[in-house]
Design a protein that fits this description.
57 residues; alpha+beta; two-stranded antiparallel ribbon; rod-shaped
Length: 57
């Protein structure tokens, strides 16, 4: 995360980087049968805010 924050800061001048990692969860067969929906769910695995000071170029 810190490495990503540093790269974003150096490349784009960002001082704060919010990182969220999501997993895509397809509906189960029983859920499809019950609801008739093929809606995909997203499960949040990781969420973090990183702060970094920009380096001078």
């Amino acid at each position: 995360m810190r490495s990503l924050a540093k790269r974003m800061t150096d490349s784009y001048g960002a001082s704060v980087v919010d990182v969220s990692i999501l997993a895509k969860s397809p509906p189960s067969l029983s859920s499809i049968r019950e609801t008739g929906s093929l809606q995909v769910r997203y499960i949040q695995l990781f969420d973090q805010r990183c702060y970094h000071e920009a380096t001078q170029r």
